[in-house]
Amino acid sequence: xxxxxxxxxxxxxxxxxxxxxxxxxxxxxxxxxxxxxxxxxxxxxxxxxxxxxxxxxxxxxxxxxxxxxxxxxxxxxxxxxxxxxxxxxxxxxxxxxxxxxxxxxxxxxxxxxxxxxxxxxxxxxxxxxxxxxxxxxxxxxxxxxxxxxxxxxxxxxxxxxxxxxxxxxxxxxxxxxxxxxxxxxxxxxxxxxxxxxxxxxxxxxxxxxxxxxxxxxxxxxxxxxxxxxxxxx
Length: 233
What we know:
- 70% of the residues lie in helices and 6% in strands.
- It is mostly helical.
- The chain has helices at 4-16, 18-24, 28-48, 51-72, 86-103, 111-132, 136-161, 163-168, 174-201, and strands at residues 206-212, 221-228.
- It has a single domain (4-228), classed as Rhopdopsin 7-helix transmembrane proteins, CATH 1.20.1070.
């Protein structure tokens, strides 16, 4: 049941981010679709606790991360031999992801740790961009993203390594909390990466961070609104 948020936030972010996707690339929607697929496979895994369910869950996360890399990785971080060619970078990411998909069957016990290590690399890139930018909206979205991700990761680590303690006090919900927190992190991370990407790929556009259902509400779901085509540099 804690994966239901994946199926709520995924379609909602597709709707809210559609104006941005129209300007940037409709492939942006693939991230939200894979996010929903991850939620479905996670449901299947936790209902069955099967080996197949575990692999489907982890492979879906792998391809979700790969899609984000392909679309939003700033060209300045590409390997030098690619010469900032996004098409070549995307092909490289797909090749590595396909190989990693097959390798995940060999040592499934390390899959979760490998996936979290990728998240640390994304965190490193986001921190580098945070240091560069003076955009207050981007800084705030990055701050919230990092705090939510850290809270989610803390829940996952506590559940993984201190399970016996939580069983002893009859508290069995940390993994569910991980699901909810990471699903809330997704919209913030998506907007943060899209804003970073826009500073490189869409300098002529003015993007505004808005919150659904109301900007004035204390809590809301972030998305990007495209304001104009005549941004002055």
